[in-house]
Each structure stands twice: as structure tokens, then as C-alpha cells.
Design goal:
heterodimer, A: 196 residues, alpha+beta, 7-stranded mixed sheet, 5 helices, 41% helix, elongated, B: 171 residues, mainly beta, 1 helix, Lxx211020-like (chain B), signal (chain B)
Chain lengths: 196, 171
């Protein structure tokens, strides 16, 4: 095999690999989109801390952050709320259309008044509660896991999905910010979300 | 209230994910600038708690326990006047799910080793806080060990996002 021939073969292989990679990328992107297209699209009837209805349609109109947690949360929820608040501070005017919702997975303890007290200091986050059945519907629709864990005495705590969901102005899932993700990454994701 | 200190603290907080706490070889590195605290063979270093956000009903206590003895010991229980109930818990992230467990049998401190109670792992859980935890103050906590006995220590209150006692940087 002469050198010219070898070069042709190698370049062909490069082209094949590139095409395969592109095809794979398109395929995974398309399948991923179809997998998450239904996230959050089920019917659920919740209430904000102020007593307004909160449904799938409440997430339409402007982009949002959506977090499922509970007030008796040792670390993840207060840290996430504080980080969300710091991102608003960092984004300033850029975040004027960004809304945030903290949906309780512990509706037995987190009444409208309790959850309102818990999030009101942020100045940006709306507390959301509801009946256990409707909370279950909303959580299931967003692919959120939560479970009651009994403690000594009559107390209990909750295990729960700790990601912040990014929702676009059409009320559709755009991505997540993981717990304790770096601020730079979180801000980049929020800027992409806000640019639509 | 002003959020500036909290936000500044957050801005500077290092976003590391503590590994699930595990026994490490003693001796543990000195933490902060606190005088060493010990009871029996157990040395207690780097105690701290975090300032609570408004209306937070729970809080966590963190410290490192080093067993300088030749026999395993066990942290059986913790109590504090700032909480209706104080327990020993383990937290772990499994994928994107936060999981919490109460350690009803306490926490073993193996002979010659250290066990770290830190954000993201083992911690003392204050439930039903009777007051807000304010940065710069201290809160008392009483620890009972199976062999070493009982000691009351003060946990300095750090920022709401503190990952370590103030004056102690990184891991």
C-alpha cells in the first residue's frame, strides 16, 4: 500500500467516524428530547402560599426555577434557597422575568403559612403546597422522588430529589441545576434559560 | 434583615461535595483555633454549626471525633437546649436524591481513627429549634459516649453555608 493510498483510507475513516459521531449525537439528542417532553405536563392542582392556584399553566409565560423540598430539611433545602437567592443577586436585571417556586413534598407539615414563612426572606421564591394527592401528582409528573423516613418518637424526615428544575417560558423542562453545582455553571444555565 | 453577609459568604463558599464521611487515620489535622477538647480517649476538634435562615425549624451540628484509645467507642446520643429533640443522622446524596437516616445505635468511633461529622455526611440533627442560630454566637451541645462518658461543648455558629469552622479553610 503506498502512502497516498494509505492517506486516502485514513481520511475516509476520519469522515466515517465524524459522520457516526454526528449521527449518534443527533439520535441521543432527539431521544432525550422525546423522553423529557412530558416532564411536568400532567394535571395537578396546587396552591401558592398566597392561596392562588398553581397548575401546569402557572409555569407558562416566563421562565422559572422549580424545586421540590420541605421546611424540616437539614441542609439541601436551605442551601438551595440561599443559592437561588444569590443567583438573583448575581443576575440583577437579567433575572427580572425569572420566577422561582419551592414545592413542598411534606404537605402535612408545610401548610401555606409555614412554607410562606420559610421562603419569604428570599424575596423571589414562591412557596407552593397542596393536598398530599395533588403533591404526589405534581412530583410524579416532574419525575421527583420523595419518601417519608420515620425517626425516633413521632418525628419523620423526607428523602427527596434535590435538583433545581429549569423551566422555559412555555412551561417545558429545559434542564436541571444539581445540588451544590458551581455558581458559574448555574449562572450560565440560567442565562441560557433567560435568553430563551 | 440584610442578606449581604449571607450572600457574600455564599459567593466565597467553596462548592465541594464532601465525600460520605468515613473513618480516617488519626491524628486528625488541627481545626480552627479552638483549644483542644477531650473526654477520655476521645478528642473533639473543629466543632461548628450553621446560622439558620429565617423560620428554619432544624439545624445541623458538625465536628471531628478522634479516638486515641485502643478500644472502639461510640457516640450514643446528643442533646441541646436549643432544640426539642437532638439526634445523630447520616445524610447522603444518591444520584440526585438526598437521603437521610437516623443512626439509632449511635456512631462508632473506631480505635485509633477519626470520624468526621460534616455537611453532606454524618451530623448532629437539631429538630424543633427553639431559637434562630445566629452567626458569631455559640450553641451548647452535650455528647454522650459509650465509654468516654458525657461532655458539653460549644458549637460556634458559622455562616448559613459554612462548610467548616471559620478560620479553617478547605479540606
Amino acid at each position: 500500500m503506498n502512502l497516498t493510498h494509505l492517506r486516502t483510507v485514513l481520511w475516509t475513516l476520519v469522515a466515517v467516524a465524524a459522520l457516526a459521531a454526528t449521527g449518534l449525537y443527533v439520535y441521543t439528542t432527539m431521544t432525550r428530547t422525546s423522553q423529557v417532553a412530558g416532564l411536568g405536563q400532567a394535571d395537578y392542582q396546587l396552591l401558592t402560599a398566597a392561596g392562588d392556584a398553581f397548575t401546569r399553566d402557572s409555569l407558562k409565560g416566563s421562565p422559572s426555577m422549580l424545586f421540590f423540598g420541605f421546611t424540616h430539611c437539614p441542609e439541601v433545602c436551605p442551601t438551595s434557597l440561599a443559592e437561588m437567592t444569590s443567583w438573583y443577586e448575581a443576575l440583577g436585571d437579567e433575572a427580572k422575568d425569572l420566577r422561582s417556586f419551592f414545592v413542598t413534598v411534606d404537605p402535612e407539615r408545610d401548610t401555606a403559612a409555614v412554607i410562606d414563612d420559610y421562603v419569604s426572606w428570599t424575596g423571589h421564591v414562591t412557596g407552593v403546597t397542596g393536598t398530599p394527592d395533588e403533591i404526589a401528582k405534581a412530583a410524579q409528573s416532574w419525575g421527583v422522588f420523595y419518601e417519608k423516613v420515620p425517626l425516633e418518637g413521632s418525628d419523620y424526615t423526607m428523602d427527596h430529589t434535590a435538583s433545581i428544575f429549569l423551566v422555559n417560558a412555555a412551561g417545558e423542562f429545559e434542564g436541571t441545576i444539581a445540588y451544590r453545582e458551581s455558581s458559574d455553571t448555574a449562572l450560565a444555565k440560567l442565562r441560557r434559560l433567560l435568553e430563551g | 434583615m440584610t442578606l449581604r453577609p449571607l450572600l457574600l459568604a455564599l459567593a466565597f463558599a467553596t462548592a465541594f461535595s464532601p465525600l460520605a464521611s468515613s473513618a480516617q487515620d488519626a491524628p486528625a489535622a488541627a481545626h480552627g483555633e479552638m483549644a483542644p477538647i477531650a473526654i477520655g480517649d476521645i478528642a473533639i476538634t473543629g466543632p461548628f454549626t450553621r446560622a439558620t435562615l429565617p423560620n428554619a425549624p432544624v439545624g445541623g451540628g458538625f465536628l471531628t471525633l478522634t479516638n486515641n484509645g485502643t478500644e472502639d467507642d461510640r457516640l450514643l446520643s446528643a442533646s441541646s437546649p436549643i432544640a426539642r429533640d437532638t439526634q445523630i443522622h447520616e445524610m447522603a446524596m444518591e444520584g440526585d436524591v438526598m437521603k437521610m437516616r437516623q443512626l439509632v445505635d449511635g456512631l462508632v468511633i473506631p480505635a485509633g481513627q477519626s470520624v468526621v461529622l460534616e455537611p453532606g455526611g454524618y451530623h448532629i440533627m437539631f429538630m424543633g429549634l427553639t431559637q434562630a442560630l445566629v452567626e458569631g454566637e455559640t450553641v451548647p451541645v452535650t455528647l454522650t459516649f459509650e465509654k468516654a462518658g458525657t461532655i458539653t461543648i460549644d458549637l460556634p455558629v458559622g455562616t448559613a453555608a459554612a462548610d467548616a469552622p471559620s478560620g479553617h479553610m478547605g479540606h
